[in-house]
Specification:
GO terms for molecular function: histidinol-phosphatase activity. This protein has 307 residues and is α/β, with parallel strands linked by helices. 40% of the residues lie in helices and 17% in strands. It contains eleven helices and eleven strands. Strands 4-7-8-9 form a four-stranded parallel sheet. The protein has a three-stranded parallel sheet with strand order 1-2-3, covered by helices on one side. The protein has a two-stranded antiparallel ribbon with strand order 5-6.
């Protein structure tokens, strides 16, 4: 009975497949305890993803997100006897106006939590394809090191503005880099920024997600990498689990490898969103976070059933 705090469906995300209910049903069938629904926020037309450009307007994308919130709450209630559904969203952080978009969503809807993520640097997507990554790198100065510095500076701005309860794929920037498993080796100024961001997350009580999607995309380690996890652990930081699934076949994918990684880090507990736990902040009406000891997590029947 593990947990995931990050998912997308083809019903509400153009680069995913399947309906939101099919995603929930798959999580139930795999024996998940908690499964979070976190579609992307609507964006202005200049920040549409390529698959949205031919099929959406700003108004239709906003309506799609509204439909998502209603369907997510319906599913949370309909499946409450089988699984704990957490309703949230995943941020973008692209340009100054993004903050206004997020603040408006928080004022309009009632969410359990949200995932604070960064997918762009200099307004260019850095995880969509290699060509886009290279454009962002050129704009940053032409090297991975300079792009990494700009990524973590932009992430710091997002953290300060939003203080997200969960920080999504903290080091996503390494996915399409020249050496994605090098753990930022030799990049002194990058590490200064990483430690600054981690210290800030710890200061307001934020949680890092351990995101297994890096493994299905060919990386040797999940997000964040081992060195970052151990640095955050040394600060007393907290972690939660995510599969970042975009289709039913990705629900719980590589979770066995994720558990192995958790044990390798030396962390003693993992946290999960819990509507019955004390709230993280008054902005969120329902979800706090509870924890499970890693030794107990490893003994859950899920692992044998999904090996």
């Amino acid at each position: 009975m593990p947990y995931s705090h990050h998912s997308h469906s083809g019903q509400f995300c153009g680069h995913a497949t399947g309906t939101l209910e099919e995603m929930v049903q798959q999580a139930v069938s795999k024996g998940f305890h908690t499964f979070s629904l976190t579609e992307h926020i609507p964006r202005p037309v200049e920040d549409f993803y390529p698959e949205e450009e031919l099929s959406h307007t700003e108004e239709s994308l906003a309506k799609l997100f509204e439909d998502f919130t209603h369907e997510a709450v319906r599913l949370r209630d309909a499946y409450s006897s089988k699984i704990k559904i957490i309703v949230g969203f995943e941020t973008e952080w692209i340009r100054p106006s993004t903050l206004v978009l997020i603040e408006n969503l928080l004022a309009k809807y009632e969410f359990d939590f949200f995932m604070g993520s960064l997918h762009h640097v200099h307004t260019i997507p850095i995880d969509f394809d290699k060509a886009s990554y290279e454009r962002a790198r050129a704009k940053a100065g032409g090297t991975d090191e300079r792009l990494f510095e700009d990524y973590f500076d932009s992430q710091y701005e997002m953290l300060q503005a939003l203080q997200p309860p969960v920080v999504g794929h903290f080091d996503l920037i390494r996915l399409l880099s020249d050496k994605p498993d090098a753990e930022f080796e030799g990049f002194k100024e990058v590490w200064v920024r990483i430690h600054r961001n981690l210290e800030y997350i710890k200061s307001y009580g934020g949680i890092l997600e351990l995101n297994s999607s890096a493994l299905r995309k060919g990386l040797a380690q999940p997000y964040p990498c081992l060195t970052i996890c151990q640095a955050f652990l040394h600060m007393g930081g907290r972690f939660t689990m995510s599969d970042d699934s975009h289709s039913i076949d990705q629900v719980g994918t590589n979770y066995g490898r994720l558990l192995d990684f958790i044990q390798k880090t030396g962390m003693e507990e993992v946290w999960y969103a819990d509507r019955d736990a004390p709230r993280h902040t008054s902005r969120f009406a329902h979800a706090g976070f509870s924890s499970i000891i890693v030794e107990e997590l490893a003994q859950l029947p899920f692992w044998a059933a999904n090996s």
